[in-house]
Amino acid sequence: QVQLVESGGGLVQAGGSLRLSCVASGRTFRSYTMGWFRQAPGKEREFVAHINWSGGSTYYTDSVKGRFTISRDNAKNTVYLQMNSLKPEDTAVYYCNAEGALQGDSYWGQGTQVTVSS
Questions:
Q1: What are the angstrom distances between the C-alpha of 48 and each of 26, 29, 31, 72, 92?
Q2: Fewest Cβ atoms nearer than 10 Å: which of 29, 30, 54, 114?
Q3: CA 6: distance to chain centroid?
Q4: What residues contact residue 44 under an 8 Å CB cut-off, 6+ apart?
Q5: Where are the alpha helices (DSSP H) in the chain?
Q6: What is the pLDDT of residues 97-114, one digit of tens each?
Q7: Which of 67, 28, 76, 74 minimizes the C-alpha distance to 51?
């Protein structure tokens, strides 16, 4: 089992910044690809970004490229999402995900609310 706890959400004006954190406990953190997803009201959960076990490979959805940066600190069992130039359409609950190599080895945090006012 892997337990994930997100923090860092809040209310920010358009153009502002937030940094989300996700602390993992349980299994070996460094063996997991870590990702961030988000779900806006009335919409399906969507992929935002992910980072491989070493931090050497990252991938972003097009709408956040150049504004968001995902990173990880394996010594602290933590993955981050730095969000800059926030837009009202970034408003959502943001979820941390840990994805292992085996099918079914996937875990989610409880989510943290990000609200961007115009």
A1: 24, 20, 20, 15, 11
A2: 54
A3: 8
A4: none
A5: none
A6: 999 988 889 999 999 999
A7: 74
